[in-house]
């Protein structure tokens, strides 16, 4: 049986898709691209923005047109199961809480026992199998979120925070390392809350310590940390080269007024101090962030505060999202929603600034030695694509490398296509 998986959204979805694919491969299924006439197509959806909803529906309809039996899962499927079920040609809708049962459901699908279930206890999918064509592995250590950001629907789609046990995380890491991966990205919906629900209690620092000390040939990266969770212990792990010199810390707004409306739980000064401290202690670190533009009530001065803060801070890139109204969130009911045209203007200004800062950061790497994992061979002869420990996508000049290989390189030139490095 031929199966395709289309994955939208975050690294958690990517990790879960890899676990699903690994389990189904173990059961004898063959995996193909969505364009190669699959018998079954699994669409792992996202609902973080209205655009994500649209993209999820679009790919579901594309999968239906391919002639495949279509299975929809993920956050959009969790929140909008009925809407998806009404799309002609969808055979099965599986919420986040049943992802671990997808192999069972796939088998039942061909036995004409089609279910659409979304109300069973939340799962903590972490498969005995893992398969990904990517050179880096995403290891899910946590799911769900206890925060109450006023704009976010993900806690409704994922439930409360739940941690994978230390034993299961270490066992999963064993399998991933034995498969030959040289980088593991620790991911979850809110990994900073890792361990608080375990007995005995643990923490993200505890599990990171165990992993980095057990696997000294593998590099580890954190997917994202909330500003209030970045502490001296994480900075020390980066200084000691036990964690990649890269941290993604969402800002969302550079205005204290907007941060309060978002219910983010930190101030601009706190964020500023954290970023400056990290840059001071780890000079080569790449710090990324997320920004939401056009939140209800965002005045021109609020946006200028955000722009000026991002311009000032040693941040190397940022992702910019126009605020997207989500059903049943506090922000949905707030007054003074911003027009789409104004949000678009503000997004462009921040994206231009992000490109400037990203290019400046990359230019500063010339002559430096970087730790790189090879991702794939480039179209240009004698060039390979890779990603550095400080999160730069670059090209390696060589004629004898392999995807997944880890090596040290020196940055030798900067071209319009990006940074060129050569192996040491």
Explain what this protein looks like in three dimensions.
The chain folds into 4 domains: about 1-115, Rossmann fold (3-Layer(aba) Sandwich); about 135-225, Transcription Regulator spoIIAA (2-Layer Sandwich), CATH 3.30.750.210; about 250-365, Transcription Regulator spoIIAA (2-Layer Sandwich), CATH 3.30.750.200; about 370-424, OB fold (Dihydrolipoamide Acetyltransferase, E2P) (Beta Barrel). The strands form 5 sheets. A 6-stranded parallel sheet has the order 2-1-3-4-5-6, sandwiched between helices. It has 13 helices and 19 strands. With about 425 residues, the chain is of the alpha/beta class. The longest helix is centred in the last third of the chain and has 24 residues, at about 340-365. α12 (about 300-310) packs parallel to α13 (about 340-365). The chain has helices at about 10-25, 50-65, 75-80, 80-85, 100-110, 155-160, 165-180, 205-215, 230-240, 255-260, 270-280, 300-310, 340-365; strands at about 1-5, 30, 40-45, 70-75, 90-95, 115, 135-140, 140-145, 160-165, 185, 220, 245-250, 285-295, 315-320, 370-375, 385-390, 395, 405-415, 420-424. Helices cover about 35% and strands about 25% of the residues.
Tertiary shape: globular
Q: Identify the CATH class of the largest domain.
A: Alpha Beta
Q: Uncertain spans, ≥5 residues at pLDDT below 50?
A: 111-123
Q: How much is the radius of gyration in Å?
A: 22 Å
Q: Write out the CATH superfamily name of the largest domain.
A: Methylthiotransferase, N-terminal domain
Major beta sheet, specifics?
Answer: 6 strands, parallel
Q: How many structural domains in the coordinates?
A: 4
Strand order of the largest sheet: 2-1-3-4-5-6
Percentage of β-strand residues: 15-25%
Q: Mean pLDDT, rounded to whole units? A: 92
What CATH calls the topology of the largest domain is Rossmann fold
The computed structural class is alpha/beta
Span from first to last CA?
45 Å
Number of strands: 19
What would you say the CATH architecture of the largest domain is? 3-Layer(aba) Sandwich
Q: Can you count the helices? A: 13
Range of helix content: 25-40%
